What we know:
By secondary structure, the protein is of the alpha/beta class.
Amino acid sequence: MLKLGHIIYSNCFPPHSGIVSGKVEFPFKLVEGIPTQLNRMLYEGKIDVSPSSSIEYAMNPGRYLIFPGLSITSKNRVMSILLESRVPIDELDKKVVALTTASATSVILLRILLELQNELDPGYILYEQGVENPADRADAMLTIGDLAITKPETPGFIYRYDLGDLWHRFTGLPFVFALWQVNYKKSIERDFAALYDILSISKAYGLSHLRELADAYSERFRIPADVLLTYWKLFSYDFGEYEREGLLAYYGYASEIGAIEPVSELKVWAKQ
């Protein structure tokens, strides 16, 4: 049976809401996880399609196809990718920056902003967000997802930066955090086609019922309904030329810092 990954953070919910709520018939299996878990499962073939970190596609050239028309893209600010710092961001040279293990895309984004935009050379450590608190061993720390929206200010970390906003100020472009990626198997082409239609219907349902969904699922995500609605409206869930331009700019900068090899083309799945 085809398995679809589902990011447990609230930013993935609108396009999957028809499926999760039962409003759209779903004959496949939904597998939940955080972005890095789903990246690994997609790579290993344990799931077949997933909203997966955009950097995952670039790190594994030729392994995936992109499902058309779907992404999680911030138009400018994003609220859920947060850098907290003891000092202004342009003073983090040679300082210690704690990177969450929950995300790959956001880590590379932060490196671009620090190393290219601000020409800094910080040291990096990893931590498991929600489990560890790196405040006593870092000068700045990256938090992603719903926790970034709800966490109180960390004492001593008086500077707070929204990475979606910093990226938009740097490039003037949107930022693609996730793409629906296919670990392609021709033997289940019919299932891919059926899933694509289901996702299109589910996405249309979600985007036309944001207010009702915010009210209904606020408690699940532990985010006030008005905040959740504001958050969802910051995103484009499409993948057109606007999002494509932002993604390719990101890949170009990621290549410049040595995180990936240059990406020459995007391979998009086409319905037969």
